[in-house]
Amino acid sequence: MNHMMLYALVGVGLFTIGLYALIVHAQLLRKILAINVMGSGVFLILVTLATRHQELLPDPVPHAMVITGIVVAASATALALALMLSLRAATGQDTLIEPSE
Amino acid sequence: MKNNEQVGKMFHMLLILLLFVMAVWLGYVVLHLRASPPGLNALVGTSLDTSGVSNPVTAVLLNFRGYDTLLEMGVLLLALLGVLSLGSASDSRETPPGLVLDFLSRLLVPVLILVSGYLLWAGAHAPGGAFQAGAVLGAAAVLLLLSGWHLGEQFSGLLLRAVLILGIGVFILAGIVLIIFSGNFLEYPQSLAGAMILMIETAAMLSIGVTLAALFQGIAPTGGQDK
Description:
The structure holds 2 protein chains of 2 kinds.
Chain A (H helix, E strand, L loop, with lengths): L3 H21 L3 H22 L10 H32 L10
Helix pairs in contact in A: 1-2, 2-3
Chain B lengths: L1 H30 L9 H7 L8 H9 L1 H20 L13 H24 L7 H17 L11 H25 L10 H25 L10
Helix pairs in contact in B: 3-4, 4-7, 4-8, 5-6, 6-8, 7-8
């Protein structure tokens, strides 16, 4: 238990807040943002867990995984936004809920 | 109608409660993770000398786990293909950039290019590397695009395509050449490892930067057969 664990707990908090927003909001843009917040939480936890052994240097493998993950998350977000924009252009709405009337 | 609202509120409270329980549980798990598997730290430390770079993160990314990075370049390219195949649905309006944006972008873009070059070079021995450098390069390109700059016709055809696939192309080519010389895919000979990593990283940086900017704008290469 050290101060680094505070960052891991913040990561857990970010993940939970993101999950809440993902469930509650219907708009796709908010869902995409929520998934990004969740991902940031996971990255924060991974980076923190790399420093679990205080006597050693941080483990470089989780750091490399996070760098890879950030690039993949950025490109997936771009694809999701493009899909959202074309949905909006095709149907004029920004949720996946069928209009009731 | 009132009933529905109440049920909805109840579910909302239930959701908050469940998420709270999940957060407490996750926090407990994270705090009490066993420290006994020491991770790959020692292994990376002992083989760092043979990797050609002295920054362990770069060694893992480009040497020990080169496959990951190679496939990641593929993911980036696939995402771009996905975005481009959707077509440009956005109807962007353009206004000429203000004086501040115009001046600052002229001032900042050369600095950003310099910083990305530095990050690439520093990646061998300090935090940095192709992805960070590529991200800075991409940011410079996005800044240019936002301030009303356009890619000239002469560059947006074959040259743009070539730069987009340069990263993964050089990576695969290096892998294949290394199969011939050392027998294994992406197993660098120790004397050449540093130079090969720098070469792959340079190509990857250019590709990442241009791909990120293209993802942002949905720039499609022109002059293809579909047009």
